[in-house]
Automatic annotation (TrEMBL):
Ranges where the Cytochrome b5 heme-binding domain occurs: 2-80
InterPro entries: Cyt_B5-like_heme/steroid-bd (IPR001199), Cyt_B5-like_heme/steroid_sf (IPR036400), Cyt_B5_heme-BS (IPR018506), Cytochrome_b5 (IPR050668)
Xref: PANTHER family: CYTOCHROME B5, CYTOCHROME B5 TYPE B
GO terms of molecular function: heme binding; metal ion binding
Keyword ATP-binding: no
Protein keywords: Heme, Iron, Metal-binding
Keyword Transport: no
A Pfam family recorded for this sequence: Cyt-b5
Protein name in UniProt: (Mediterranean fruit fly) hypothetical protein
Gene Ontology CC annotation, any one: membrane
Disordered: region residues: 87-111
Amino acid sequence: MSQEYSVSEVAQNNGHDGKPVWIIIKESVYDMTEFIKEHPGGDDSILEYAGKDATKAFNEVGHSTDAIKQMKSYKIGVVRPEYTKVHNRQPTSAANGLSEKQQQQPECGQSEKKRIKFFFCF
């Protein structure tokens, strides 16, 4: 079983005052302290998320399979379940007052990129 950390424990390890650099990616906690020196994208991209959840930024960059495999060696644990329950919760249509059809409609003035159609309200 992996070591579990609270979000506040991760936040304390933000690289300041000689502390290690921990980040969260996909509910796993990584100690990036040594890796930041080797990171091809430079240390700024990791330090920006030190002590925080970097999942979205990590996914947007598009890392290679080798990079993802290498990350496993820096994994030190997981975030406690109470954090993952809060961050994985999706609003239901009843909760936000919209029908399924309304949720699928783009808002006025926004384009629907998936189908390369444009929808504007006049």
